[in-house]
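Blinded run. Sample ID left blank on purpose so nobody reads anything into the name before looking at the predicted structure. Input follows.
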Amino acid sequence: MADTATPASQPPFASIDALVQALAAVGYLADRRLATAVFLALRLQRPLLLEGEPGVGKTELAKALAAALQRELLRLQCYDGLEQREALYEWNYAAQLLHMRAAEATGLANDVEAEVYQPRYLIRRPLLQALQAPAPGAVLLIDEVDRADEPFEAFLLEYLGEYQVSIPELGTVRAAVPPVTLLTSNRTRELNDAVKRRCLYHWLDYPERDRELAIVRTRVPEAGERLSQQVADFVQRLRSQPFADAFQRAPGIAESVEWARALVAMDTVELDPEVVVDTAGILFKQRDDVAALNTRLAAQLLLPADA
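Blinded prediction complete.
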């Protein structure tokens, strides 16, 4: 498999503002700091590592960016025990075996080993698909990389640093078009410094109230203005002191949006403590957190901020 040089390409967005507008057009409202990190990753052709609490929009950013760039989205979901062959490639052993048997039957088995290690017998996984994607290239999401183990991190270094991988039977495969690569981490463990050095970095935090309200309005347009404001205000207060100490994990943007959708499905016009308690299982995924959001606490959270 011959190496191919990376062609020069025009930056996909002329400015950070143009990127913000393009993401907004596909339903993702990015703040200036996040948009700057994405813009620089695109301009410098560097992977971008996004860390933050679950549900703050890391995975959704990759989806939105792929839509804005009109590129294919390839997703590698990481987990404990993930192996290289599941991320990069494996050989189609059944097809290779059939070829070898056919070659032996016809007496043409002189160089059968070389024949069976051809690209047509290669099953391409997300990393290799991203490297070999035709123009304009692909967006590769390496999701929850913190769930994989350290040997897998070491395996990623060649790809992250040079947009290439080594296949023993075929040689080095370099990207024809550098993939736009996003890695996400929920910080279940600390990533290796070697991975971090090869990436640009951004910590994706919970949004401020006005941006969260804008996200709810965009994603759940059928929600009334009063309900949208109450959802944004309620979740913001849940994440703030002294209320945050009552819960193991605060709801993310994903939970805010899902909660608003559920409330609309229930024909809710305005929040009250009973509705909040009845739908607590959408905001929280831990039994203790659901139990902690009782009627008394819900009533406190629904009071005006200056009460």
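Unblinding after everyone has recorded impressions. The CA atoms of residues 56 and 206 lie 6 Å apart.
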